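Troubleshooting: if your tokenizer reports a length mismatch, compare your output against this known-good record of 224 residues.
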Amino acid sequence: MAKKQSKLMALKKWLTIPEAAKYLSNMMEEEVSEADILRFALDGHLTLSVNIVNTAYARRGDIVSKDERVFREMELAQIFEEYFEEKDPEVLQAIKKKGNKFKIEKSMNIDDERFINFEDEVKKINGVWDLPMLGCERYEIEHEYQMQTGGPEVTDSYDFEVSAYVQREEGVIYEMRERFNTGKDGELRKASEELNKHNKNIKLFEDNRDFMDPRNFYPPKIRD
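Known-good structure output:
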């Protein structure tokens, strides 16, 4: 017979992972560990959420079909013109001869059938958000599961840049963003100065740029 749940538990809108393990243990009449909760979430049996207590930054993305993907046009020769003009003019001429413009897919591929079209605008968010397990939030949960069960450290996601995602409504995903340090000794200002030595057409940083300008933000790294 399942144990009777406390009145306090019944009043809670959401449970911590330890509380969820205790609750399911009582309901199922068998031991459910915190590692089990993480595994259930990874396997799609339940949803984990995060409570963003302080303001965070994110950009909205709509889940669309393959036919609704978006692309952006790039001018390759213009981007690298100064660099190749100095280092290897023949390469620059070859680029121009093949065509200056080409298209890059902007949409994020979920499963070859569903894609996400992200807005450029960065917004402030807080409160409780679900984890859709599309990016490094999945790797972090898998890492924690492995640590709790004596497994290996999960490092695959850190071989390349992977964003973290949160969700509140069906068909909409938010990609977490972090703001560069744009102060005098900030990394964005230094990177911009270094890049401008090779190509003065590219500006990563401008003193009069708005605080919420999308160029001031980048995907956060959760674990070092």
